[in-house]
Amino acid sequence: MKTTEDSNEVSIKTEDQTQDGKVDEDKAKEGAENHVDVLPSVHEDENTVSKDSPQPDIQSSEKPEDAVEPDKGQNSSKTEEKQEVSTKDEDVKEAEKSEIVSEAVKQDEQPDSTVASTDQEEANDEKVVEKIDVQDSSDVETKEDDISKNDSGEASEVKKEKDSSQEDEEDKVNDEKPVEESEKISAQEEKPQPAEEEQIEKDKAVKEEKNTEEEGKPKEEDGKPEEEDGKPEEKGGKPEEVDGKPEEKDRKPEEEDGKPGVEKKAQEENGQSVEKSDEANIEPPVFDVPTENAEGDDSKPSDFYYDYEEYASTSYVSPESGIPENILHLFHSFGYDSKKKSNLSLLPGPTAVFAAGNLVHLLDLSANTHKFLRSSSGGGIGAVTVHPELTHFAVAEKGQKPHILIYEFPSLKLFRILQEGTERAYSFVDFNPNGNLLASVGCAPDFMLTVWDWINEKIMLRTKAFSQDIFRVKFAPEQEGQLCSSGTGHIRFWKMARTFTGLKLKGELGRFGKTSLSDIGGFVQLPDGKVLSGSEWGNLLLWDGGLIKVEICRKGRKSCHAGSIQQLVIDEGELITIGVDGFVRVWEMESIDTADTTDESDVFEVEPMNELKVGSEVQLTSMVKLRETKPADESEESIESIWFAQDANGGIWKLDLSFSHTTKPPEKLYSYTAGKISGLTASPASHMVAVTGDTSVRIYDYLTKDALCEYKCPMLSNSSSILWPGKLIYAKSNILLVGFSNGLLRSLILQTNEDEKSLTLQQVLKPHTQEVTALAIHPDDRILATGSKDQTVFFFKLNSVIEPIGFVSVPGPVSHLQWSPDSFSSSTLLVCCSNGKVAEVAKPGIGAFDTSHSYKLTLPMKYFSFQSIKSQLRRDEARERKRIEKENKLKEKKKELKRRKDRGEEFSEEEEREFLNVEEEEEEEEPLFFPAKPSLLHAAFYSEENKFILSVGDYDAGYLYECEFSSDAVSVQNPDIAPAEPINSLAVPESNDIPATTIYHSQNAHCLLVGFQNGIIRVHPLEKDINMETFKMDVITLPYWQLSMHDNETGFVSSICESNDGAFLFTGGNDGNIYGYNFLPFEEVYKAMEGQRARLPSARKDADEVPADDIDDPQAYSIEDAKLKAEHDRYMKEAEAKKAEERQKIQKLRHIFTDIIKKNDQLPENVRLKREDFELDPSLRVNMHEATNKRIERVRLEMQWEKEKLNLATRKLKNRFSDMIDCPRITLHALNSEHTVSSYRITRLADEYFKLEKNIAERARLGSLDGGNIKGRRLSDGLDIGRKQSTKEELEHQQSFLQGAVKKQKGTTLQGRQAEKVAKAIKKAEEAKKKREQRQKEWDDLYKSKPAENYEDPADISDIQEAKANIGDFKLKTASDYVVPEHLRMDTEKKKTQILILQGLIFQAKKEFNTKLTSLRDNKQSRIGDIKEWVKELKEIQKKLNGTLRKTLPKVPKMKPDELPERKYDYTRDTLLEFQALEKERELADASKKRSGMGMFGGFDDEGGQDGEAEGDKEEQTTKSVKSSSTPSRSRHLSKASKTQSRLEIEIAKINEIKLVYQRNKLLRLINQSITAFDAELHLLRHEKTHLDVDIKMADLRQITLLEELILLKEYEKRENTLSGRVSGKRMELNDVYTKVADMQVKLESKRRDIEKLTDREKQLYATFNSYLGDNNKFADFLTRVFKKKIKRAKKKKAEEGEEEEGSDMSSDDESDWSSEEEEDDSIEGGFDDSVCPPGCDQQLFDDVLNLREKRLDLEEALVEEKKIADQQKKDMDSLVKKSKVMESQLKTALDALEEFQVEKQGKLNELDVVVPLHLHQVEHVSNGVVPADLSSCLVFTNQSLIGLQRRIKELQHEKAEQRSLFKDARMSHVRLIKDRKIMEQKIERLEEKCEQMMMLKFGRIVDLDKLDSITINKTVEELKQKVHQNELKNSAKLLRLDNLISELKDTITQLTRVNTRHLEKYNILVNQKTSLEKNLDQRQKDLNFDQNGDKKSDTRERQRLMQLVQLQAQEIQALKEEIGLLSRKGGHILPPAQPPITRDDDL
To answer: Crossing angle of helices 89-106/152-174, nearest 10°?
Structure first.
C-alpha cells in the first residue's frame, strides 16, 4: 500500500511529459479499431474498442516521433526529479514510519505479524537473478538482491527515485481524470488509524495545492481491486500505451537507472521493509497460495477476470487510411504445427489444445468443433499446458516481453496475466502437482527459469536455466519444491528451499561422465528422487545425485527406442516411453527404479512389458492421457487407458494402452501436413484448396472444413510445388500438377465414385534430378514451365497428356517463375534464381526443335546478376536525416533570433551569422558493405518490358528493387556477367528489414497481398484504375492492413492463394499452419453459401480403370537422361548389328576354310599340305592366344570382387540356414516296398546349453564351497575359531625355544667326551620335546574330537535325511501344510536349466536315431554297390549261356535324392557342361517348361541313373531279341555244334553250362537276400522311430509345461530376487558379525596372554628384587619400601614434541620423573630420604633397586593399559553378541517371508495343467462299476508306489522298535560315561597335587617344566676346536688317497697298452681268416651242383654253422673296435661286451 506522501512526491512532472502523454493516448485511440473477432461465441461484444493493440515487430522501427518523445522527456527530467525528491527526505522518513505503524496495526489480527503470507515474504524479501556457467557443475543458487542501506535516508532516497519514475508513467494514464473522481476514490479508502490522521491531512493539502492526481491503492470495493503496474482496471479508465504496449514495459526505468527490479518494486509498493530477515532457521518450502485476499494484500479475488478483447492482439491499419478492420477475417485453421515439441494438451470434452501460429486451437474431439484464441503479443505461441485439475490452461507467448495468459475452462475467460518472465519467448510451462505454482522457461537470449505464484501474478523465483535451448521443465510429482529441466546437451536438477534469507533455488547440472553427451528431450522424476531421462540414441539414463547411475537398454544391447525418446510418463505404477520410432513401450517401474550394474559397462538390460507400434511412418513426440468420465460408447476399462498422441509427421492419434484381448488398434483422428507448407492452390471451379508440404497432397473443402482426399507419394519424397490449372487448360479443372523433391512431376486427377473422393495418378514424368521449386503456365499456348534446384527449366505442352518440349539451363537454383504479360512484344519467362541471378528465357516454339537426341533447347536468354546497394541506401538515408535535422535546427535558431530581436537585443551581421551557424558533428561514415554470399531472391515480377522488380532476403531485405536487363549483347548471353546495381529501389514501409517472401495479386486486382518472413500478412487495397498486369513498385507504399498470423520465428509465409470467387483467402507458412480468411464477415458469407458444398468435377472413376504406373524407383532416369540413354542404346544396337554382320562374314569364311581342309585331307599324302602351311603368319595365333589369356585374366580380375561377394553371401546363407542344421531330413526308402523312414531335422544346440554344461560341471567341482554353509554357522563357531587360533599361537610360542637348539644340533662337530656330553643334553631335550609334542597332539586330537554344544553327527544327519526321504510320506504339493524343500525350490534359472537339459535329451535321442539311420543308409549304399557288381557278373554269365537258359536280370536299385540331401548342391565340371548344353538346347527349342528332376546342380545321381536305365534298356532289348530268336538259333546252334564239336566237347560245354547256371542262381539269391535283409532292418528302425516319436512328443509336452512354469516364475522373479537378496544380505551381515566375533575373540585371547606375560614379568621382577636383597639384609625393609613406593610420574613425551619443547620452554630444573603421592614428600619413616642411599647401604644395590622400581612402574602402567583395552574389547564383544542375536532374528524373519513366498509360488505352479497320457486300463478309479466322466478330482498314482507305501508302514514299525532299543542302550552308555568322567577328574586332581608336592620337594616352588627342559650347554669353543682338528685329519687322508690313486692309474695305463697290442694282433689274424673263408665260400658256391632229390639237411646245417661263425666274428670285431676306442682315450676303462657272444652249436 502506498502512502499519500509517496503520491505527493511522484506527482511532480514537467509540462512536456503531460503533453506527450496525451499524444500517446491519441495514438492508442487511433489503433483501437484494429480488432479481429476470433472467438465470437466467447466474446459477443464486437463493438468493444481495444486499446491494447500492440503493433507487430515489423513496424517497430518506423514509429512516429511523437510516440517516442515521452521516453526522452522522462529521461531528461530524471535528474531534476531526483533533486526535488532529495529535498524532502525527512518527510519521506515520517511517511515510512507512519506506513510501518499502519501495516503493523493491520496485521495484528494475523497469526504472524511480521509476515503477511509466505508468498508475500518471498516477493518482498528477495530477487533471484543468477549467471550460470555451463562448464561448472557446481550448485547454482539464486541470491537475494541486497537493497538494504546503511541508514534510512539512503533507503528512502532509493524508494523515492523508484516511485517517482513509476508514478510518472501512471500519471500519464490518470492525467485526464477529473479531480472529483480522485476524491471519490480517496473517500473509498479504508479509514486510517488515529496516528495517521495528521499525515493524511498534510497529503490532502499538498494535492489541492498542486492539483495533481495520484493513482493510489484503495482497498477492495465490492471485491474488485484496481490494477497497478500499468494494468487496466476492471471498471475504470484503461492505461494509455505507446505503440499498443504498456509504456512501463517498454521503458523499464528501474532497469535503466540501476534501480531494483520486479521483486524490489513489489517490496516497496507494499510498504514492507527491505532489510534482510534475522531468521537463521532453514525451513522447507511452503507453497500454499491463499485463496482469499488478506487485508492489505494486492492479490486479485478468485472471481476477477480480465477483458479478453483488451488483450487479444488485433490487426493494424495505416492511420487515416479508411481501410476497414474486417477486410480479412479468420474463419478456420487447417494446419497443425506437429514439429513443435509438446504441442498437444487435453481438456475435458475431450478437447485438444495446441498452438497454431498466433492462435490457440481448441478442438473438441467428440463434436469436431473448433475454437480459437489469439495471442496478446502477436508474436506467436511458445507453449501450452493444462492445470492438473483441468480447470485452467496456460498459454505462454512469444514476442517482446511476452505474457503468460491463464484462461479458465470451459468459460475461456482470461483469468490471470503473468508478465516480465522472459525477454523474447517461452519454450515450456508446467504446473506443479498441487496446481498453485507455475514454472516457465524462456528461449534465447536469457533462457530464464521462473517460478510463479500464478494466482497472485507474482514471481517467486527466477534464474538463468542454461545457456542453450531448454526443451522441458517439470515439477517433481512426489518431492515438493523440486524441478528438473532439460534441453540441448544438458539436464539440470533444481531444488527450492527456504533459508534464513528467504526462498532459494538451487540447480545442479547433470554430468554425463563417460556417457556421450546427448540432448535430453524427455524425462520423468521417480518417487525416490532419481530422474529417468531419454537420450538421442534411444536408451534410458537413470540419474542419481547429478550423475548417471546406469544406462538402460534392451536385451542384447538393443536400444530402448530406435531414435530419441521424446517423453516418459509414469502411469499406474508403470513407466511409459514414446520415441520417434513410432513405438510406445511399457516398462516395469520397479525394475527401472532398482536398476544397477556391477560391471564396468554401466549398462542394465531389461525388456519392456508391453509395446505398441503406432505406425511405420510415425514419429511420436508427446502423449496425454484422457482424464475424465467415460463417454457413452466407451467402457470403463477402455477409458482408463485412452491416450492421445502427437505425431511429428502430421497427425493426432488415439491410442488404447490397455494391452488386453479387447485392445483397439491405434486410430489416426486427424491428419495434417507435417512441417512447412511448400505449396497452396485453390480450385478454379469449386470450393476446394490443395496443400503440399510433406509426402502427401491433401485437398480440403473449406466450406465444410473437411479433408476430402489425400494422395500419398510412394517414395519418401516431399511434394514441393503445386499448380491447379484453370478451365482454359482443362475444362473440368480436375487436374493438379505437383512437383516433388526428387524431381518428379505428377499429374493427379480428382475423381469421385459414390461420394468417395480420390486423387489418382494420371501421368508421371521426371524432368529434373532435384527438387521442383516452381511451376508456371502460359495460358494462351498451354505451355508449362517447371523450375528446379538442379538449375534447369523444363517446358511441357499441356494436352490430354503432358508432352515434354525441352529444357534450358539457368545460372542458379530456381526460386520463382513468371510469364510475361500479353502486352509485351514477345512472350518470355522470367526465371528468378535463389543465388542472386535472374534469367529471361524466350518462349519455345512447339515443334521447332529437334529433340530426337536430347531435350536441351537453345533459346534466346538474358541474364542479370544482383548487386547489393543496401549499405549505400542506408548511408543516403543517414545523410538525409542529418540534413533535415540541420534545417530544423536552423529554423529554431532563426525563430530564437527573431524573438530576441523583438525583445530589443541588437546583433551585428557577424554575430548574427555566428548565431545562425549550425555546427555539424563530424561522424565517420561506415564503409560500404557487400555480402560475400549473394542475398536470396524470393520473387521477381515484370514491371515493364525488359525490367523487373525483385523481392530480396537476407542482408538486402526491407526494400523492393527495380532492375533492368543489360542491352549489351555479350552480357545478355553470358550467365557469368558481373553483378549490376538495380536502377531503382523503394523501402517497404515499416518492414524492419523483414523480407517479403510472397507477393500475390488478387483476382479482381483490388488488392495486393504480401506475406513476410515473420508470419505477417499485409493487404494493400488498390484503386480501380491501377493496371496490375505488371507489378508497380509504388503500390507497396500505399496504406495497408496487416495482421500477424503465423509464428514470428518459424512462420515463413510461403504461399498465398485465393478462392475461385475471390471470397476466401488462404495462407500457408513454414510452421505447418494453413489459415483461411474471408474478405467479408464470415456470418454473411456463411448465410450466402448455406447448404452449399464443394462441387467436385463430374468425372467418374471407372471401376475397371487402371491407374497410371508411378515411378517408385529413386534412381529413375529423368526425361533428358532417359532420352540420352535411349540414344546410347540405339547406337549400341546399331553397333551390335554391325558386329553381327561381320561375324556372319567371318562364319562364311570359316565354312569355306573348313571345306578346303576337308579337300586337303582327301588328297594323296604326297601332295597333301600340312596344317602349318595354312598358317600365313604363326605369330597371329600366338597373339590371339595371348590376347585371349589377357582378356580371361581381365575378366577374372573384374569378377573377383563379385565372386568374393557371392562367396561371402553364400557363406552367410549357409551360416544362417545350413550350418545351424545338425542333421537335415533324410528319407530312407525300402528296396522292395514303399516303406520309408525319415530322420529328425534337428538344429544344433544353442550356446546356452554348453554354457550350462560347463556351469554344472563347475558347480559339481566346487560343490563343497557352497555359500549356503553360512546358514548353519552360529556364534559358538566364531568362538571356537578364536580358541583354536589362540591355542595355535600358544603352541607356536612354546615350541619356538627348541627350534634353535635343534638347528644347532644338526650342525654340531663335537666328538669324544665333550660330544657325548652335548649329545646327551640334546638327546634329553629332544626326548622332552617329543613327549611334549606327543602329549600336545593327544590333547589336540582330544579337543578336536570334542563336539560343540550344537554339534550334530554327520552320520546322524545323513540318516535323518535318508529317513525323511524314504519314510514314504507322499505329501501332495497342493496340501495346505506342504513346505517346499529347499533343494526343490524352483526359480527361473533352475527352470531354464531344466528346459535346456530337456532340450539336450531330446537332441541326444534324435541324434542317436539319426546316427542309426545314416549308418543304415551307408549300408544301403554298400549293398547297392554289391548288387551292381553282382549284376555285372550276371551279365557276363548271361552272355555265356544259351538263350533258353537266360533270365531277366534284376534292376539295380538307386539312391534317391531325398536320401542324400547333403549332395543337393554338389556339382562337377561335367554337370556344369551338361547344364550348359541343356540350356542351349532349351534356348534353341524355346521350351517353356523348366527342367525337372534334380534342378540346376542335381547331377550327382544322373550319371548312375542314366547308366542304369541304359543298361536296363539294353538288357531288355537283349532279352527280347533272345526270346524272339531262341528256338531257331538254338536249333541252328545245336546243328552247327553237332557238326563242328566232338562228343567230349559237348559234355564239357554242358558241364560249364551247369556251373554257370548255378553261379547265376547263387548271385540272384544273394541279391534277394541282401534286399530282404535291408528291408527288414528298415522295418525295425521304423518301429523304433514310432516309439521314439511317442517319447519325443511326451518330451515336447513336458517342455510346454516347463515353459508355462517359466513364464509364471518370471512373474514372481522380481519378488523372489528381492526376498532372496534380503536373506543373502542378512546372511552376509550375520557372517560378518560372526567373523568380527571371531576376530574379537582372538584379540581377547591375545590380550589375555599379554596380561599373563606382564604378570609373569612382574613376578620375575619381584624374584629378582628378592635375589638382590639376599638373606639377613639390614636394609631390606628400607629397600622394600623404596621398591614398592607408589609415585606419580610425568607422562612420557614423544620424541618430536620433546625436540620442539627443549630450551626455553623447559625450566632450569626439569620436573622429576616421579613425585611422592604421600603427604610427606622428602622423608619416610625413620627419617631417611628415599632418593639418597642411606649410609652403610651398597650404592650399587640401591641403584639397582631404583632401576627395578622403574621397571615395576612401567609394568604396572602397561598392565593397567592392557586391562583397559581388554575391558573395552569385552564390551565390544558383548555388543557384537547382541547384534548377532538381532541379526539372527532378522534372518529368521526373512527366511519365514521367503518360505511364505515359496508356498504362494508353489500354489500358482500347482494351478498349471500337466499332461499325463494314460491308457484306459491304467485307470483303476471306478465308481459304481464305471469310470467317472470327470477325473479332475483324482490323483495320478502308480500301483507300485501304493504297494510300497503299504509295505513301508510295517517297515517303519520295525524301525521304530529298533530305534527305541538303540536309544535305551545309548542312554545307559551315557550314564556310564558320566561316571567314568567323574572318576577321571578325581584322578587328575590327585596327580596334580602329587606333581606340585614333588616340585616343592625338589625345587622349593612350582616351576615350569618346559623351561627346565630347554636348558642346554654352550658349546661354541668346543665345536670350533673339533672342527679344526677334523679338517686337518681330512686333508692328510685326502692327500694320501690322491698319491695312491696316481700310482694306480700309471700301472693301469701300462697294462692297458699291452692288452691293446695283443688285441690288435688278434684282430689282424681274424681279418685274414675271414678273407680266406670268404674266398673259399665263394668258390664252393660256384662249384656246387644241387640235385632235386639230394639230401638238403647237411646243407642246411652247414649254412647255419657258417652264419653263426660270421656273427661271432662280427661280434669280436665290434668288441675290439670298442676296446681300441676306449684305450685311445686317456683314463679309459674296458667294459664287458654289450651282449655275450653267441655260443656255438655243437650239432652244427
So the answer is: 80
* Buried/exposed 1344-1372: b ≥16 CB within 10 Å, e otherwise: eeeeeeeeeeeeeeeeeeeeeeeeeeeee
d(CA 1390, CA 1479): 59
Rounded Cα distance between 1175 and 718, Å, is 68
Q: Which residues pair with 944 in a beta bridge?
A: 947
The span from the CA of 1859 to the CA of 386, in Å, is 81
Residue 238 has pLDDT above 90, yes or no: no
Contact between 423 and 448 (Cβ < 8 Å): yes
- Output 1459 or 1356, whichever has higher pLDDT: 1459
The CA-based angle 790-793-797, given to 5 degrees, is 135
For residue range 572-596, list pLDDT tens digits in order.
Answer: 889 999 999 999 999 998 888 888 8
**C-alpha grid cell, residue 732:** 473440368
Going by the DSSP 8-state scheme, the letter that residue 768 receives in this structure is: -
Query: Dihedral, CA atoms, 214, 216, 220, 223, nearest 10 degrees?
Result: 70
What contacts 544, CB < 8 A, 6 or more positions away?
Answer: 529, 530, 531
Q: Please, are residues 1143 and 1150 in contact by the beta-carbon 8 Å criterion? A: no
- CB-hemisphere CA count at 13 Å for 126? 24
1248 phi/psi in degrees, rounded to 5: -65, -35
Q: Compute the C-alpha angle 541/542/547, nearest 5°.
A: 100
Cβ contact 1000:1058 at 8 Å: yes
pLDDT-derived band at 1217, boundaries 50, 70, 90: confident
Task: Dig out the grid coordinates for 300 from the structure.
Answer: 486479485
What gap in Å lies between CA 1543 and CA 69, rounded to an integer? 157
Beta strands 603-605 and 547-553, pairing class: parallel
DSSP string, 1945-1996: HHHHHHHHHHHHHHHHHHHHHHHHHHHHHHHHHHHHHHH----TTS--HHHH
Reduce the DSSP state of residue 1133 to 3 states and report it. helix
Which residues touch 1132 (CB under 8 Å, ≥6 apart)?
Answer: none
Percent of the chain scored above 70 by pLDDT?
72
- From the CB of residue 1162, how many other CB atoms can be counted at a distance below 10 Å? 8
- DSSP class of residue 1218 equals I
Cell numbers given for 715: 517414395
Q: What is the largest CA-CA distance in the chain?
A: 189
Which residues sit opposite 362 in a β-bridge? Answer: 353, 371
In 1095-1244, the DSSP E strands lie at: 1221-1223, 1227-1229, 1236-1238, 1242-1243
In this structure, the number of other CB atoms found within 10 A of the CB of residue 883 comes to: 11
Separation between Cα atoms, residue 1822 and residue 1831, nearest integer Å: 10
Assign 850 a pLDDT band (cuts: 50, 70, 90): confident
d(C-alpha 472, C-alpha 395), whole Å: 15
